């Protein structure tokens, strides 16, 4: 069973970077999820899908996986360039383009 080591992206509901500095080790699904026909619940017989381990650095997660004999794949995060624009810049008098609706 192969584990994934990655740093999660921020959720769509958060504007800050909370909980994005930790690295996560979780197992890839071994069996597909099943839909229970009577109630419509989604279930899985894969117990390892419930395990999520958090680490401060990528090296700590890799060391844990190698020490315990876990096959792993590391996914590097995609860093985006952050623009530093404040709200008041929308109304500056020396804008390159005039502000209109």
UniProtKB/TrEMBL annotation:
The keyword Signal does not apply. Keywords: Electron transport, Membrane, Respiratory chain, Transit peptide, Transport. Gene3D superfamilies: atu1810 like domain (3.30.160.190). One of its GO terms (biological process) is electron transport chain. Pfam families: NDUS4 (PF04800). It is found in: Membrane. The keyword Membrane applies. InterPro entries: NADH_UbQ_FeS_4_mit-like, NDUFS4-like_sf. GO terms for cellular component: membrane. It comes from the Bacteria. This is ETC complex I subunit. It comes from Falsochrobactrum shanghaiense. The lineage of its organism: Bacteria, Pseudomonadati, Pseudomonadota, Alphaproteobacteria, Hyphomicrobiales.
């Amino acid at each position: 069973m192969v584990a994934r080591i990655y740093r999660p992206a921020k959720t769509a509901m958060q504007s800050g970077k909370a909980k994005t500095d930790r690295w996560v080790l979780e197992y890839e699904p071994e069996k597909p999820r099943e839909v229970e026909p009577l109630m419509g619940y989604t279930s899985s017989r894969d117990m390892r899908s419930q395990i999520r381990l958090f680490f401060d650095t990528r090296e700590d997660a890799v060391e844990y996986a190698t020490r315990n004999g876990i096959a792993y794949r590391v996914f590097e995060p995609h860093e985006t360039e952050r623009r530093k624009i404040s709200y008041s810049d929308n109304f500056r008098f020396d804008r390159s383009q005039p502000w209109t609706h």
